[in-house]
Amino acid sequence: MSKIKFATVWLAGCSGCHMSFLDLDEWLIELAEYVEVVYSPVGSDLKEYPEGVDVCLVEGGVANEDNLELIHLIRKRTKTLVSFGDCAVTANVPAMRNMLGGSEPVLRRGYLELADETPQLPYAPGIVPELLDRVLPVHEVVPVDIYMPGCPPDAHRIKATIEPLLKGEKPKMEGRDMIKFG
After folding, report:
1. 148, exposed or middle or buried, with CB in 10 Å at 0-12, 13-18, 19+?
2. pLDDT band of 123, cuts 50, 70, 90
3. pTM of the predicted model as reported, rounded to 2 decimal places
4. What torsion, rounded to 10 degrees, do the Cα atoms 17, 18, 20, 26 define?
């Protein structure tokens, strides 16, 4: 039996969903029997998102040009995309900056108004990816196959979502244990 090509991605978020993923503890060893981790900030060191990914958990909202480019590549190269956690599903905390009304007010607040010394905007290329005017949930940018809310989703919910996918089945995302936000 060939292994499922499995990926996780961290966009604009706190990494709490990935920390919760690591809370799967010994089940991670069982999971490793069924999947090949082909891309993940906690499970591989590859820099290029590969072709032919079967399942990808995407944590975080889409906040900048790098996130935008990556999520389009992920959708193009992934069979099943899971919106992983409240920031991916709703944009959640990263979207609080949307209230400031665009990227320029965010940069002014962060780099000028709150700076202690040498306030300056980061306009040199390559220092900070260009911010989008709004932080977006993943489904507003690309189609999503499965929504797994939670801030973060607990290990039980993550396992209950992934386990059916290993058998080629779609998880039942219903009931408080599977769809509660927060």
Report:
1. buried
2. confident
3. 0.93
4. 150
